[in-house]
Amino acid sequence: MDIQKRPLIGISMGDPAGVGPEICVKSLTDPEMSRICRPVIVGHAGCLRDAAERVCRLPVTIRAVQTLDEARFEQGQVNVLEAGSLPAGICSSGKVSAAAGRLAYDAVARLIRLALDGDIAATVTAPINKEALRLAGCKHAGHTEIYADLTGTRRYTMLLAHDGLRIVHVSTHVSLLEACARVTRDRVLDVIRLAWSGCRQLGIGSPRVAVAGLNPHAGENGLFGREEIETIGPAIQDARQLGIDATGPWPPDTVFARAAAGHFDVVVAMYHDQGHIPMKMAGFDFAGGGSLRGINMTLGLPIVRVSVDHGTAFNIAGQNKASPDSLKDAIRLAAILAAGRPASGAI
């Protein structure tokens, strides 16, 4: 593909104290990434240079640019749009700090603005740290909430995907008590609709949407809770009246295994850990060399946002142990969506 026809994709560096800089430089030294897109990192050139030279010892040139027009897309060269400054000792330190949180937020905010202005075709995000964001004065709980706020999006949800298993969430970064309160008929219906349209965007013609229950055994006909009867079930019926192939509420302890076996195209989870645990069981291989696979995509936005499905991993930052697999998966999907092509059904 002619280089100018490859989509221009912005990648935020993530928290500079975590593994974000490492996985960015590891990913962009893979020749496949430059074959499928024109990548530009938004972050801190000095931090990325440290990750490339000291931590990963990669033969790559980190090139700081002030505008996208200055970027040059050549193998062995990584373009970096500067998002701000950093005090000494922050990069790959594995420590939470307000300075790192501020740089991470500013990089994401600039990335979003570039996409909204049409300067880049898609956005990809490396991991940020929620405590560092809070110390920096950021009111948002994470990437999903930052994107929703800065794009003016009211109806949105997180989709996790790996190897045919896809999961969306009714709520994410809230307490379990608040998560239960958010299981309303309107919200469940919104997420079913987002799940269906997200699957269509990924190239699935007639998505089969499974909806998990909130309670053990999906409430057992009201014995263990009435949310399935009073809110989740009615939302499913509402969705079916809209022509969506939605079923449930299914017992949460079996529905994800059924989806992984191909019975459903996507599962609507009621809260963060209900959906994240099965996804990370499927995609994270700590025993087999530390490969971390899977992507996180925000549905409902006016721009494309795909992310890694893991955190900042402060415990291994600066040790050259971080796997770039999830970030490369995210870049691949972003390139496909940016080009306006449906993704493979395996996503």
Q: Considering DSSP H and I runs of 4 or more, what fraction of the residues is helical?
A: 25-40%
Going across the major beta sheet, what is the strand order?
3-4-2-1-5-14-13-6-7-10-8-9
Helix-strand makeup class: alpha/beta
CATH class of the largest domain: Alpha Beta
> What is the architecture of the largest domain at the second tier of CATH?
3-Layer(aba) Sandwich
Cα-to-Cα separation, first versus last residue: 23 Å
Mean of residue pLDDT values: 93
CATH fold-type name of the largest domain: Isopropylmalate Dehydrogenase
Anisotropy-based shape? globular
Number of strands: 14
| Name of the CATH homologous superfamily of the largest domain | Isopropylmalate Dehydrogenase
User: Using only CA atoms, what is the Rg?
Assistant: 20 Å
Unreliable residue stretches:
none
**Main beta-sheet strand count, sense and barrel state:** 12 strands, mixed
Output the helix-strand order: EHHEHEEHEHHEEHHEHEHEHEEEEH
- Structurally, the number of domains stands at 2
Number of continuous helical runs: 12
Beta content comes to 15-25%
